Structure prediction request, 365 residues.
Amino acid sequence: MTAYILKRLLLIIPTLFAIMVLNFAIMQAAPGGPIDQVIAQISGQNTDATARISGNTSAPGEASAPRSDGSSTTRSARGLDPELIKRLERQFGFDKPMHERFLDMMGNYLRFDFGDSFFKSGSVVDLVLEKMPVSISLGIWTTLLVYLISIPLGIRKAVRDGSAFDVWTSGVIIVGYAIPGFLFAVLLIVLFAGGSFLQWFPLRGLVSDNWEQLDWGARILDYLWHMVLPITAMVVGGFASLTMLTKNSFLDEINKQYVLTARAKGLSERSVLYGHVFRNAMLIVVAGFPSAFVSVLFTGALFVEIIFSLDGLGLLGFEAAISRDYPVIFATLYFFTLLGLLLNLLGDVMYTIIDPRIDFERREG
Prediction:
């Protein structure tokens, strides 16, 4: 197993490098870079979200002229002091060729020096640490509830396969899977957050404005009160696939010969199910926990954070993409890609811990 882990760790290096190269090239080719953002603000042009997404920060009738260094400068810059443009290029690092900027960036990242944000005060590390509690709260609660709901439900569906319970729960799962999380979040706001009907839950934020003045018991209740709707929106779309995975895993194991042998020995159905089937059936479910947590933590919460005004990593990444804040974009991409690759390796290690019969080294040989 040690040789396999070392091989996977070495494979992370080219994988991470390829991902960074691809995304760096795409971002450099996209119009509306950070220099354009500053020029548009100096020129008094509209820089709303729609204009930034499309990269059209030019005035009506004006086009963007691409630059050889990978950035782009609008024609509105013609009315600005050329020395100012050069200072902006030096400030943002665009006075260097693209490949040199990339190598400098990767060299800094290898030392875990992620630099400072272009448009927000503070370093990228400080910004990530500031937003992390919100995303961690969403990720932990969502993953925990998804597993607590999906595993018992999947087991029960497998045991009662083909029954009325299995049919109607499958219908509920299909509906939950079909509704996007952000659309369900909007529905929850309309129904329970003062949209058109009830106002049982707060519309925005992780805690109330007077949270600091509350005692510890009231603080916990206030936090949970704010988390109900966002977590519900994320759980509804997340439990469907895991439930069906659990059910199919149990059905596959239940029909194997060792289960028939255990039943023939007179063991109770509960002993057969949880003493023999459970460990083998849950192998793929439990081993996938690390990657599932990362998926919820860093990708699934984007729209939910925006809709409920939760200032987390998803909202930070969205704002960075809109404003072309390259240090935030590439630093978070580097860190969380590296984290995801390491957690995928952890998932393989968990396979061997749960079932020692699995030997990745022998399979590769």
Summary: Residues 216-254 form the longest helix (39 residues). Residues 46-76 have pLDDT under 50 and may be disordered. The CA atoms of residues 129 and 313 lie 9 Å apart.
